[in-house]
């Protein structure tokens, strides 16, 4: 007979080790912190080894615990994969995304993924906040990250996150063809000071940023119109309500259809890049790997437009 540890304790250990907290692990598993601590102790007694450093205000993994966590996550992923191969339960992929990217970039493409992977069910939520693995249970999160972050896939937050760059984009003023014909094409950025301007409330610094990159002061934006949803901003611009500061990857369809046209050729590299963040506990699952491969191909396809090339 194999001298196996209590298998349920592995699941409790993995959650406690991933969070480095019995409290947060208990919240995830729907049990008390004491129940998590008891299962971890049972596992440690079986191994005859300590996996955590116990401190007055919490716990953290010791060196043995970190090494054991990698093995346990690999084993649990293999057990999960075996269940997928031999079971009938639908595989489920939990995605969180910045609302604008979900609506304007991901959704037009997502049917391609579901057609290629009919056995994977999608749960897609939107969120304006930063990635927060402690408060939100997810497999993949699409978010923006500052330019100072590493451009290659990296692990962050003690191996809790894997980050891939999806795309970089640029900012440019756009408006409807009718509005441009009505007002005439401005000769320089200062001419926009008399135009009705539109912006996304979540990116209220985009207009000042673009003007600064042109070496010009931003106009008074107190009279500009702001919109909570990026789709509302785009619709207002298409309808001729004013000039919008557009993010190239999110207005690519409107530019291609010429329902929006550039006001200037001048563009500015956006201060962030769009990233795919994958949860460490999920990265070995086949559906997560399939989604990561697919979305990276979509983002890097030469047929896609809007990436910053300057």
Question: What this model shows, in words?
Answer:
By secondary structure, this protein is of the alpha/beta class. It is 40% helix and 24% strand. The protein has helices at 7-19, 22-29, 33-47, 63-86, 99-116, 177-183, 206-213, 230-238, 252-257, 286-300, and strands spanning 52-55, 58-61, 91-97, 120-126, 140-146, 154-156, 161-175, 197-200, 225-227, 243-247, 261-262, 268-279. The strands form two sheets. Strands 3, 4, 5, 6, 7, 8, 9, 10, 11 and 12 form a ten-stranded mixed β-sheet that branches. Strands 1-2 form a two-stranded antiparallel ribbon. Helix 1 (7-19) crosses helix 2 (22-29) and helix 1 (7-19) packs across helix 3 (33-47). The longest helix is centred in the N-terminal third of the chain and has 24 residues, at 63-86.
Q: How large a portion of the residues is in β-strands, by DSSP E?
A: 15-25%
- Could you say which structural class the secondary elements and strand pairing correspond to? alpha/beta
Give me the count of strands.
Answer: 12
Give the assembly state of these chains.
single chain
Categorize the overall geometry. elongated
Please state the average pLDDT score.
85
C-alpha-based Rg, rounded: 24 Å
Which spans of ≥5 residues are poorly predicted at pLDDT below 50? Answer: 147-158, 302-310
**SSE pattern, N- to C-terminal:** HHHEEHEHEEEEHEHEHEHEEH
Main sheet record = 10 strands, mixed
Distance between the termini: 64 Å
**Percentage of helical residues?**
25-40%
Number of helices: 10
């Amino acid at each position: 007979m194999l001298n196996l540890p209590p298998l349920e304790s592995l699941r409790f250990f993995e959650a406690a080790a991933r969070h480095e907290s019995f409290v947060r692990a208990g919240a995830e598993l729907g049990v008390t912190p004491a129940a998590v601590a008891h299962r971890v102790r049972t596992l440690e007694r079986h191994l005859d080894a300590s996996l955590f450093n116990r401190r007055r205000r919490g716990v953290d993994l010791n060196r043995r615990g970190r090494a054991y966590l990698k093995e346990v996550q690999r084993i649990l992923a293999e057990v999960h994969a075996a269940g997928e191969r031999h079971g009938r339960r639908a595989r489920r992929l939990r995605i969180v995304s910045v609302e604008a990217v979900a609506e304007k970039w991901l959704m037009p493409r997502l049917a391609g993924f579901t057609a290629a992977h009919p056995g994977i069910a999608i749960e897609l939520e939107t969120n304006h906040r930063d990635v927060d693995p402690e408060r939100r249970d997810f497999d993949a999160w699409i978010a923006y990250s500052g330019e100072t972050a590493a451009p290659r896939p990296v692990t962050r937050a003690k191996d809790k996150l894997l980050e891939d760059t999806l795309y970089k984009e640029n900012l440019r003023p756009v408006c409807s063809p009718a509005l441009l014909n009505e007002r005439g094409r401005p000769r320089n950025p200062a001419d926009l000071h008399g135009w009705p301007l539109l912006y996304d409330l979540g990116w209220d610094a985009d207009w000042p940023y673009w003007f600064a990159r042109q070496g010009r002061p931003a106009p008074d934006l107190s009279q500009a119109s702001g919109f909570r949803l990026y789709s509302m901003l785009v619709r207002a611009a298409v309808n001729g309500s004013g000039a919008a500061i557009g993010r190239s990857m999110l207005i690519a369809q409107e530019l291609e259809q010429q329902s929006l046209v550039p006001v200037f050729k001048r563009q500015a590299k956006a201060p962030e890049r769009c990233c795919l963040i994958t949860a460490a506990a999920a990265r070995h699952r086949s559906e997560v790997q399939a989604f990561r491969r697919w979305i990276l191909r979509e983002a890097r396809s030469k047929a896609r437009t809007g990436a910053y090339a300057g």
